[in-house]
Amino acid sequence: MVVSGFEVICLEEVGSTNDIAAEYAAKYPEHKLAIRARRQTAGRGRRGRSWQSLDGNLFFSMLFEFSLRDLGRLIMAASLSLVDVVKAYKPDADVRLKWPNDVLLNGSKISGMLLEKGAGNYMIVGIGVNITQSPQMSDMLYPTTSLAQAGIAATADDFLQKYLGLFAKNIDLAAASLRQRWLENAKNVGAKIKVLQNGKEQRGIFEGIDDDADLILRTDGGVQKILAGDVFYLGDENGGF
Ligand code: BTN
What we know:
Blueprint: E1 2-3, E2 6-14, H1 17-27, E3 33-40, E4 58-65, H2 71-89, E5 95-98, E6 102-105, E7 108-117, E8 122-129, H3 156-170, H4 175-184, E9 192-197, E10 200-209, E11 215-219, E12 222-226, E13 230-233
Helix pairs in contact: 2-3, 2-4
Biotin binds next to helix 1, strand 4, strand 7 and strand 8.
């Protein structure tokens, strides 16, 4: 089945859809795929964390050729499209982006994204969405929720179809428009945050992002550009998340 230019491959059980996408990338040039699995036995998250893959939730990886120089546009378009899908189900949903590419619904995480470089010019965009269930583990960094918990009746199939359509539109937008839309939909721009990077902690004001989707942090020592890390909102009622 082809949806918005993506050939959709649906598998029952895999380790990680990102790994399947990487295998395709190594074998075939010029594919544009969305690889979805009903179950992942070794789902991976950012920064070496695992991604719990609960029944009914959505796990997929998009694979397509894309210039690394435009990575910022890709990050912004891919995460904004998740917000757009949630709003397509519920226009007044309290859905917000959290840098670099998490999506929060009512202040808790519903979606995460793992971007990886594939062979040749391929990029792999792996996305997990909590449709019916939210993972609960004692060592979790953030509170989580699901669309179902927020009263949004979606299925993984329908969410994926909507997502691919909206992503195909957003990816053609210029970096400046994507950035503006990203900032309009982001949580706590202008507020105090803490950024953790490999055990190093920095505090400052979240000034926003630039066209490369890097985080701009204003600290006492000046303005810093942050390329990777985990963000915590300080002074937030939600335990700093
Ligand atoms: C994160 O928030 O840490 C990113 C989570 C990304 C999870 C998705 S599920 C589909 C794809 N396959 C994986 O192994 N990871 C991504």
